[in-house]
Design a protein that fits this description.
This protein is an alpha+beta fold and 234 residues long. It has helices at residues 16-24, 53-57, 72-77, 117-120, 131-138, 194-203; strands at 7-12, 27-31, 42-45, 48-51, 60-66, 85-91, 103-105, 107-109, 148-150, 158-164, 173-176, 181-188, 209-215, 222-227.
C-alpha cells in the first residue's frame, strides 16, 4: 500500500470557488472531461486508444492535490501566475474510507492503462444504487483510468480523491467536505496584494495560518513567511 503524505496542497486562483472552499472547507470535485488533460480517462483496447466515456467519464468526479507547495509550473498553471493561493490540508489517515473515494496516488506511464475495458464494460452504471456500490465494483482494478496519467504530468506528484455522481445529471462536478482532510493554512503567491490577504482573512476560520511567498535571494527557491492575521484587520 502506498504511504500517504500527512500534508497535501491545492494550487488555486483567487475566485469565488476558492473563497467558497476556504469558507466551507468543501472541496470541488470535477468530472474528468472538464480537467485540463485531454487524455483523462483514456484507455487502450486492442490497438485503439479511446476515452472511456461510456463507463466512467460521466460518472466519476475527482479533486486533485500535490505534496509540493513550491512547484513553479503549478504556481503558474493553477495558482494564477502567483496571484492565487496554495491551500494546505492536513490528512488524517485514520478517517480515510476503505473504498477508493479515499485518497490515491496517481500513476504515470507512457501508455494509457490496459486490462480495464473488458471488466468494467460489464458494469451497468445506469443502475448503480449508490456511490459506494459503484466504487466497490471498480476498486479491484489495478489500472483505473482516472488514476493514471501520461508521464508528461509526473512533475505534479498528484494525489486524487475519487467520488461518484449520477452520469445523467447535467453538472460539471460537486463540492464535498471530507472528514479526513482539514484546511490548515493559506499560502499566498508572490503577486498577491494586501487586499487579497484581507479578503481571505475575513472568511477564514480563526485558527487558519497565513503565509506569504517570497524569493530566496540568489536562488530559484521560495520561502513562506508567516503573516500576523491581526495586522490584516485594518
Amino acid at each position: 500500500m502506498t504511504r500517504l503524505p500527512k500534508t497535501l496542497y491545492r494550487y488555486r486562483p483567487l475566485n469565488e470557488y476558492t473563497l467558497h472552499e476556504v469558507l466551507t472547507e468543501k472541496i470541488w470535485l470535477s468530472k474528468l472531461r472538464y480537467l485540463n488533460d485531454p487524455f483523462e480517462g483514456f484507455i487502450t483496447h486492442g490497438e485503439k486508444i479511446k476515452p472511456d466515456r461510456e463507463y466512467s467519464l460521466d460518472s466519476v468526479c475527482v479533486c486533485c492535490f500535490t505534496k509540493n507547495p513550491d512547484n513553479g509550473p503549478m504556481w503558474s498553471h493553477y495558482g494564477d501566475n502567483h496571484s492565487g493561493v496554495c491551500l494546505k490540508y492536513a490528512l488524517d489517515t485514520e478517517l480515510l474510507p476503505r473504498h477508493t473515494t479515499g485518497l490515491s496516488k496517481v500513476k504515470y506511464s507512457n501508455k494509457p492503462p490496459q486490462h480495464y475495458l473488458e471488466e468494467v464494460s460489464t458494469l451497468d452504471l445506469r443502475n448503480v444504487g449508490s456511490p459506494e456500490h459503484y466504487i466497490a465494483q471498480i476498486s479491484s482494478q489495478d489500472n483505473l483510468p482516472m488514476l493514471q496519467k501520461s508521464s508528461f504530468w509526473k512533475y505534479e506528484q498528484e494525489y486524487r480523491v475519487i467520488s461518484y455522481t449520477d452520469p445523467h445529471e447535467n453538472r460539471r462536478g460537486m463540492a464535498v467536505k471530507f472528514e479526513f482532510l482539514s484546511l490548515k493554512a493559506v499560502i499566498f503567491g508572490l503577486n498577491c496584494s494586501f487586499e487579497h490577504f484581507q479578503i481571505i482573512n475575513k472568511i477564514a476560520h480563526k485558527d487558519m495560518q497565513f503565509f506569504h511567498s517570497s524569493i530566496v535571494p540568489q536562488t530559484y527557491k521560495l520561502k513562506h513567511s508567516k503573516l500576523d492575521r491581526k495586522t490584516l484587520d485594518c
